[in-house]
Amino acid sequence: MKALFFTEFGNSSVLKYGEVADPKISQSELLVKPDYIGLNFADIYRRRGNYHIEQHDPYINGYEAAGTVVEIGNQVKNWQVGDRVLFVDVPLANAELVAVPVDNAIKLPAKISTKLAATIGLQGLTADFLAHDLALNKSGDQVFIHGISGGVGQLLSQILTADGIQVSGSVSTETKQQLAMKQGADHVYLRKPGWQRGLKATFDTVFDGVGSTLQLSLKIAKRKGKVVFFGMAGGNPPRIDLLDVLGQSQTIATGDLWDYLTSAQERNQRSTRLFDYISRGVVQPSEPTIFPLSQGKRAHDFLESGQSMGKILLVPNENS
Q1: What is the pTM of this model?
Q2: Domains of the chain
Q3: Could you tell me which residues come within 8 angstroms of residue 231 by beta carbon, excluding any fewer than 6 positions away?
Q4: What are the tens digits of pLDDT across the range 9-25?
Q5: How far is 181 from 258, CA to CA, in rounded Å?
Q6: How is residue 109 annotated by DSSP?
Q7: Within 10 A of 318 (CB to CB), how many other CB atoms are there?
Q8: Are 20 and 95 in contact (CB under 8 A)?
Q9: What does each C-alpha distance from 85 to 36, 211, 217, 293, 302 come to in angstroms?
């Protein structure tokens, strides 16, 4: 089979495309032929060598894809060849074939295409756990999302809006501002010099996946408010004096999706809830940007440029 791979860590120039050995499935695995492969910032970090990556010769990046089952291990039940599947936490996904443990496989309902599943998969499940496990807002609450036009931010904003929550956020460009407003946000701040002066401590919850904005997040959260911290896209967070947090009776909630996605039952329950938002039309993801798998370098460069407003997908070349 063909795959996008590399033999040393570095910038996007280390990526190569070519023939590698086909995977061999175990008795409890599915062999999946991806239609669409998700590209995420974690893949950039893995390529650079500063994030865990599965040992393999050569290294094959990617953990998320949606496609079709083409072979089944002899101990697998309730799956058939031809079933459509999503996975978000299986290594070696940047390839034409992937061995997927059956407990990691999410069966797609008829109304969810593989393209849509790959577009919303990892970011959608992340948004779901941020909203329903960490934030736990009630209808009428006011929340703020840093980077509301990002992959997680867009889906999180729409999920919260569908739950009756008033959503505000920040973006870097007017185009992203218009998109966030179109997706239901009440107010979207354009990040330019002095933009923070328009913010007040009025938010029940502030979602912070930027990191470097953590002090601002605490400042604009209400007394007894909550900051949901889930990433460092803008750099490491500053040191926080917990006595200041205590003085405002605030909460900092944080977590890792993989501590909430620990079984086939968890995956099915959470994906069913996510797919229901999609089926009801209250969550509508942006159209993804698609690159052939052979042009993985271009896709990595585009993601790192900060120009993207939605999901980036890689397509095995025979499907492109």
Answers
A1: 0.93
A2: 2-108+287-319 (3.90.180.10), 136-258 (3.40.50.720)
A3: 152, 208, 209, 210, 211
A4: 999 999 999 999 999 99
A5: 31
A6: P
A7: 10
A8: yes
A9: 11, 33, 37, 19, 27
